[in-house]
Amino acid sequence: MSAGFRAIQWNRHKQVYDLLLVVGILLYLTGFSLLAPRLMPSDHPVTPEILRTRAFGSCGLTMLTLILAIGPLARLDRRFLPLLYNRRHFGVATCLVGLVHAWSAIDWYHGAGRLSALVSVLWSNGNYGSLVGFPFEALGLAALAILVVMAVTSHDFWLAFLTPPVWKAIHMAVYAAFGLLILHVALGVMQSERSPVIPVLLGAAVAVLGALHAVAGRRERMRDERPAGADAVGWLRVGMIDDLLANLPDGRARIVVPPDGERIAVFRNGATLSAIVNVCAHQNGPLGEGRIIDGCVTCPWHGFQFRPEDGCAPAPFTDKIATYRLKRDGETVLVDPRPLPPGTRVEPLALGALHG
Ligand code: HEM
Ligand code: FES
């Protein structure tokens, strides 16, 4: 159901998801506190405060790694899609865990001095020109600032206020936060502790995330590389009618990639075709990976719905997305890559009649 730009509804699935999230965090913190002293023996005394700082820090980075893995995993295997539904709660929880870690570190390492905590974090080590001695805490602070901005703007109010493209651009900074945290650990605790566990885990996180993104991106490009090509007036080829009838299941979409602009999702609705933009008005979800339910294209991420023929959400909701014109040239279906204003009705192209 489309809900306009209102808060995601609280339901039983989300309550279970959040409960599992809290249980997972508690299990991680307990497991880390018990196992880390054995798996990563330290040359220095590790006080309970340091252990607490490390437990929350590593928990936050693990959570961030999982968040970044959910997107490509859901693209590669639809069974991971349920994890996407509540990714925002996961993100806010990551930010809270990061805040506890930062408080714990500042309290232990910067709490006793006369400088304010912020000045102390930024200037107690002024080696900004050095690589290995770089003030790694400043990197953690920068990452935390990004996580806080993302958590604060995660509500749908900000999505509507900032507009989806700006909101998405802000939230892509999560990759910068991840990079900053990898450096935070590589230049911080990895220099002071000689345990091989830290570089191995850090390298594994980067390698697994990189591989997942590369494979999911490659899969998407391969799927997008449908018979392309344009006619004399720039309309793009969707496919041959026989091919569409045989290989495009009812209620599903074929994606067309214009040379510039957003991808186009051409949906088969029974014996007709309709084209809409592939980007959901809610949080830019890939509409073309959804399907038609009750006559509406249903976004695979959070279930917002849009009618394929006019891109409008069903009443009482008011969201709209762009539509595109379709036409037939002999046995070929073509789409005009110039988007029509959101909510513009386009007569669906009758596949059956064309074929007859
Ligand atoms: C103001 C912001 C931050 C400060 C001042 C800070 C400070 C520190 C300090 C002092 C350590 C070394 C702890 C020790 O070994 O004694 C550390 C380690 C670490 N921090 Fe941060 N940090 C900040 C933000 C973050 C954030 C936001 C995350 C992740 C969400 C994070 C993740 C980590 C990780 C993974 C470690 C290594 C833990 C381990 O040894 O297993 N830090 N941080
Ligand atoms: S419903 Fe949330 S992105 Fe589409």
Task: Explain what this protein looks like in three dimensions.
It is a single chain. By secondary structure, the protein is α+β, with helices and mostly antiparallel strands. It folds into two domains: 12-223, Four Helix Bundle (Hemerythrin (Met), subunit A) (Up-down Bundle), CATH 1.20.120; 236-355, Rieske [2Fe-2S] iron-sulphur domain (Rieske Iron-sulfur Protein). It is built from 13 helices and eleven strands. The strands form three sheets. Strands 2, 3, 4, 8 and 11 form a five-stranded antiparallel β-sheet that branches. A three-stranded antiparallel β-sheet has the order 1-10-9. The chain is elongated, with a radius of gyration of 25 Å. The structure holds protoporphyrin IX containing FE and FE2/S2 (inorganic) cluster. Protoporphyrin IX containing FE (HEM) is lined by residues 50, 53-54, 57-58, 60-61, 64, 98, 101-102, 105-106, 109, 121, 137, 140-141, 143-144, 147, 181, 184-185, 188-189.
Write a concise keyword list for the protein shown above.
11 strands, about 350 residues, disordered N terminus, binds FE2/S2 (inorganic) cluster, binds protoporphyrin IX containing FE, alpha+beta, five-stranded antiparallel beta sheet, three-stranded antiparallel beta sheet, Four Helix Bundle (Hemerythrin (Met), subunit A), 13 helices, single chain, about 10% strand, elongated
